[in-house]
């Protein structure tokens, strides 16, 4: 059976809520890049399970676009039972609780990221008690951001070198 139907609410014996350590990796992932994939890969060395949570602003993102993003990222991990991908529309800490996350996982590329991540991590900790684990980007991915890729797309450039291979 394809893992596309796999749920984050899997029983403890399969990991996830109630079973082992689980990190929620939240983001917009618009698009999901090699930099994001690298954080997932390294997160899996620290946690039994990584839930990629696509945070959706329902006012800004059409349903069809969201479903497309979800399907694309799920396809990347369909053979990996330690990764699942879900969208959410509420607070990250509520999603983290729902999936039984022991930690929130995020990536850091720059001082700018650091200040942003520090503030969010502090608020999330205060709201939920859940700690955030921050991983420094690998140097080769430092310049890779979803916003830069969206800009390249706008000018008709090929961004395939920055997208993970399935
Ligand atoms: P958001 O929309 O919440 O800013 P993104 O979807 O842009 O999030 O990214 C999700 C997480 O991945 C963030 O913690 C971001 O810093 C991290 N990230 C994005 N690109 C990279 C990269 N190239 N290397 C390491 N971490 C990254």
Explain what this protein looks like in three dimensions.
The structure is a single chain. The chain is α/β, with parallel strands linked by helices. The chain has one domain: Rossmann fold. Helix content is 35%, strand content 19%. The chain is built from 5 helices and 5 strands. The protein has helices spanning 34-43, 63-76, 92-98, 111-128, 146-154; strands at 22-27, 49-55, 83-88, 103-108, 131-136. The chain has a 5-stranded parallel sheet, sandwiched between helices. Helix 1 links the parallel strand 1 and strand 2 (49-55). Mean pLDDT is 90; it is low at 1-6 and 11-18. Bound molecules: adenosine-5'-diphosphate (ADP). Residues 27-29, 33, 35-36, 39, 106-107, 109, 113, 137, 141, 144-146 line the site of adenosine-5'-diphosphate (ADP).
Short description:
This protein is α/β, with parallel strands linked by helices and 166 residues long.
Throw out a few tags for this protein.
19% strand, disordered N terminus, five-stranded parallel β-sheet, single chain, Rossmann fold, 166 residues, binds adenosine-5'-diphosphate, alpha/beta
Give the topology, please.
Layout: E1 22-27, H1 34-43, E2 49-55, H2 63-76, E3 83-88, H3 92-98, E4 103-108, H4 111-128, E5 131-136, H5 146-154
Parallel strand pairs: 1-2, 1-4, 2-3, 4-5
Bound molecules: adenosine-5'-diphosphate.
CATH topology name? Rossmann fold
- Structural class estimated from helices and strands: alpha/beta
Q: In total, how many beta strands?
A: 5
Q: Spans with pLDDT under 50 lasting ≥5 residues?
A: 1-6, 11-18
* Secondary structure tally, helices: 5
């Amino acid at each position: 059976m394809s893992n596309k139907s796999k749920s984050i609410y899997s029983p403890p014996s399969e990991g996830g809520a109630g079973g082992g350590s689980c990190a929620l990796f939240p983001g917009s992932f618009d698009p999901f890049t090699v930099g994001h994939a690298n954080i997932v890969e390294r997160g899996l060395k620290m946690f039994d399970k990584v839930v990629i949570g696509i945070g959706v602003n329902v006012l800004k993102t059409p349903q069809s676009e969201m479903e497309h993003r979800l399907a694309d990222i799920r396809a990347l991990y369909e053979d990996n039972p330690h990764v699942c991908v879900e969208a959410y529309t509420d607070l990250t800490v509520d999603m983290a609780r729902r999936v039984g996350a022991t930690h929130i996982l995020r990536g850091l590329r720059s001082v700018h990221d650091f200040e942003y991540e520090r503030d969010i991590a502090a608020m999330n900790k205060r709201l939920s008690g859940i700690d955030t684990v921050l991983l420094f980007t690998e140097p080769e991915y430092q310049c890779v951001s979803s916003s830069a890729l969206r800009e390249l797309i706008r000018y008709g450039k090929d961004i395939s070198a920055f997208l993970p291979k399935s």
